[in-house]
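Exercise (ungraded).
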Amino acid sequence: MSLRAGPASTTADGYALRVADVTKTFRIHHERASSLKAFIAAGGRNRYEDFYALRNVSFDVAEGEAVGVIGHNGSGKSTLLKCMAKILTPNAGHVEVTKRMAALLELGAGFHPELSGRDNVFLNAAILGMGRKEIAERFDEIVAFSGLEQFIDTPVKTYSSGMYVRLAFAVAINVEPELLLIDEILAVGDVTFQQKCMEKFVDFREQGRTLVLVTHDTGNVRDFCDRAIWLDHGVVRSDGEPAAVIDEYTETMLGAQQSTETEGMRRGDGQITIQRVELLVDGVPVDRFRTGDDVTVRLHFEASESIPKPVFAISIASFTGALVTSPSSRNVGQIPDAISGSGVVDIELGDVPLVPQRYVLHTEITGYGRQRVYDHLQNARTFDVVTGSSSETHGVVTLNPVWKISGDDVVPSLE
Ligand SMILES: Nc1ncnc2c1ncn2[C@@H]1O[C@H](COP(=O)(O)OP(=O)(O)OP(=O)(O)O)[C@@H](O)[C@H]1O
Ligand SMILES: [Mg+2]
């Protein structure tokens, strides 16, 4: 985690941050010539090329704006934030920062491993421009926010990554930066901490401060940002209303995924295998459906010999890896005595409570005891859930809550 103090210049004219035509390249060295012959063939040089991590990127961030930066892995998001934080210097173009800035970039940097949490708080807050007296006054609040009271005198090298993030975030938010840059770190914290951070973001915005957040959690961008910027191979592909940018981004990613989708990872004896997995809504194959839809998962199998008492199973996990459910035909006692040739298994899922995001589906066919694996297909397919019967966007499922608010003096809404 890196905490950086930004210059607090006075040239503000409505924007907190200006990225002007920024290009950043990295030199990629190809494998060294392994023999004299190869060296001569390469023209006597070890070859390299300049890789464009960012290409002519320009935008302004207005004071008080919360901007979410999204994009595929390797699209240049972290590079962009490092340029903003002045950790990297662009090859062309420039970045202007008019506000007091704090940046939480990748894990590891910024803290002194041998020093205690306490010493690191003082060190970091000082780097961010806080006086010693001010830090001392704020110290308890910082530690309380981090929840690390018990470990504050332990060297941070013994901290877990989540603990690092807690401390770094607690410092960064408490030095009251006017501009905060955050790169994908909240994902490391646990749910309680993520929640606390979100609350802080809301306060932060209400106080008219500026936030640039890199994240793969498009739900957060939808909920917390005024604007989204989509980076695609180092270029700004779209910049605007979060909902519109995210939809465009998700569509494109899905399209790309389908055309390049490789076979999932397969293991098993193979006497019976899953040939294909379909998702059906009203009998129509789909790649996506809405929260609350009735969905049938159809497995097409093919057996090269007679399989006694086969058990079919599927697992559904969120794209980030949380297992949602893992039902099997054995759970409900659907065990044919034997099966051969080809056929289909339909798994009917009613009123699917999954919240909008991407999911992965795995399949498995085993013997009755489940030790013998005929076919296990990891990542058999992915699918997306979009907004339907619920407006919940966090977590993985909605429990379709019914809310009732009562009390001595509750003024009902007129709607
Ligand atoms: N120091 C470096 N040297 C060489 N290449 C680099 C360096 N830093 C980044 N890159 C390359 O620049 C590209 C952009 O990387 P960057 O870390 O900015 O991506 P990202 O959008 O943050 O990805 P992710 O979502 O995985 O965090 C990648 O192809 C990466 O390999
Ligand atoms: Mg990154």
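Further reading is listed at the end of the chapter. For now, observe: The domain at 15-257 is CATH 3.40.50.300 (Rossmann fold). The chain has eight helices and 19 strands.
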